[in-house]
Design brief:
The protein is of the alpha/beta class and about 220 residues long. It contains 9 helices and 8 strands. The strands form 2 sheets. A 5-stranded parallel sheet has the order 2-3-1-4-8, sandwiched between helices. Strands 6-5-7 form a 3-stranded antiparallel sheet, with no helix packed on it. A hairpin with a 5-residue loop joins strand 5 and strand 6. The termini are close together. The mean pLDDT is about 95. The structure holds BIS(adenosine)-5'-pentaphosphate. BIS(adenosine)-5'-pentaphosphate (AP5) binds next to helix 1, helix 2, helix 3, strand 6 and helix 9.
Amino acid sequence: MRLVFLGPPGAGKGTQAQRICAERGIPQISTGDLFRAALAAGTKLGLEAKAFMDRGELVPDGVVCGMVAERLAKQDAASGFILDGFPRTVAQADALDAVLQKMGQPLLACVDFVVERSELIRRLTRRLTCRKCGAVYNTDALPPKAAGLCDRCGGEVYVRDDDRPETVERRLKEYDAKTAAVSGYYAGRGLLRQVNAARSLADVAVELDRLIARP
Ligand code: AP5
């Protein structure tokens, strides 16, 4: 199973990717998580990405594409993966296409998570993320069982810096300007599948599982 999860910030890509990947034993390759891990490790890549992330802007294509190509070459991606938050520009989609062609591993589908803006803002401003393992919670829809602690690893849950209202606004604008066109790229190749992701977590999960079974 080789999938791309596309959609605006807060649409639920990471939440559903974590679930499906855990169930199927394939890696969730989230470019946002890779940057946050690089930053936590104090690497040059992390520090370079931080400036863009703090402003709610996309990290330059050249930086992202090399990082993803390296990650896809790892052994655990050989039996499938979900790319969560990549590609986010048409240039990134072209670069991914070239890497997968070289590996002889075509994509099964690009799943586009469709949610209206007011709901995205509501979700992002209520999101909690585990500092240690990246698990995603929500003060409304999916609170951690013990306040402030991750159910999965016991790590501290926190509010991401880029979930501040002014940065959320900027991220949504970046999405419209640079990422929305990626859906057309995959529609043109017959790979685009849209999911109404404005519904409950359980309803979205059912639709996704159905779609994955019969792409
Ligand atoms: P990244 O970390 O990828 O953020 P994002 O794409 O903006 O996506 P989010 O993580 O905000 O949302 P999501 O769709 O995963 O939603 P989630 O499941 O968490 O990127 C961060 C930054 O890194 C970017 O701004 C950029 O700077 C940089 N970057 C990353 N990739 C890049 C790339 N390819 N190119 C260039 N730069 C890149 O859910 C959100 C909340 O809603 C949670 O609280 C969740 O519990 C809740 N929720 C989920 N589903 C539901 C539901 N059905 N009902 C109710 N609540 C729900």
